[in-house]
């Protein structure tokens, strides 16, 4: 499962396990289910794990750190993110967080200053019970380009030079700004969510060719586009980018599912494997809440897919003028 790019001498595995559900995304996940998901991934050879302070106000980091603690440190790669400080709000402990099923004991504060990056990473190291982290991404700096691309990147470069982190970059749901990070900053890797999928290939126009040219690894996330591509038979009620799916995208997804079926492949199998066909993409990260989801994702990543499927999808896109 070795990735095809090695930022900062780091070999990125082909498949990674995302930890948003470990932070109780939308609903609670038990400690036992989290442990079973990590066990299933580990047993299948997965050695890349991704988390963030944002996921459950630190809960995901605490869980991931604990679940990896007894495994040889040299055998796994961990990424987390900076840019949102968690500030205590004990007066809101009786409320629930907006997106994660956890008590609102902290609030997220955007901070891409040097001090904010250092404080964020220090807090993450404590939650993870680690003294170094393999990959650190600036998390969703969409509205903070000026500070993120200068002060924050400079702070991460310092940390990389000190050996506290091994590779640095940014993680976003858009490709245009990630392309600017690649073009202007000394980074190793980017995490791209939802912009290079079976339904949305917008990253082909900017990020992917530039990343390939500069030798910056791309980690693809959000390969199901929030759910629309996650089932063999498309559910029109599924979300696309966390929102209600427009009718034209539902129709496209249904057509893709039909093409997949004619080749004996499921839509989610193709969704997981599609990004890895591009030479700039080193790894795909998929989320899992429990053992069945982890095993299912791993099976999708290794399902046999004939080249003719990709050829037919490309021909359909061209004929339909799908952008």
UniProtKB/TrEMBL annotation:
<dbReference type="InterPro" id="IPR023210">
    <property type="entry name" value="NADP_OxRdtase_dom"/>
</dbReference>
<dbReference type="GO" id="GO:0047834">
    <property type="term" value="F:D-threo-aldose 1-dehydrogenase activity"/>
</dbReference>
<protein>
    <submittedName>
        <fullName>D-threo-aldose 1-dehydrogenase</fullName>
        <ecNumber>1.1.1.122</ecNumber>
    </submittedName>
</protein>
<feature type="domain" description="NADP-dependent oxidoreductase">
    <location>
        <begin position="14"/>
        <end position="316"/>
    </location>
</feature>
<dbReference type="GO" id="GO:0005829">
    <property type="term" value="C:cytosol"/>
</dbReference>
<dbReference type="InterPro" id="IPR044477">
    <property type="entry name" value="FDH-like"/>
</dbReference>
<dbReference type="InterPro" id="IPR020471">
    <property type="entry name" value="AKR"/>
</dbReference>
<dbReference type="InterPro" id="IPR036812">
    <property type="entry name" value="NAD(P)_OxRdtase_dom_sf"/>
</dbReference>
<dbReference type="Pfam" id="PF00248">
    <property type="entry name" value="Aldo_ket_red"/>
</dbReference>
<keyword id="KW-0560">Oxidoreductase</keyword>
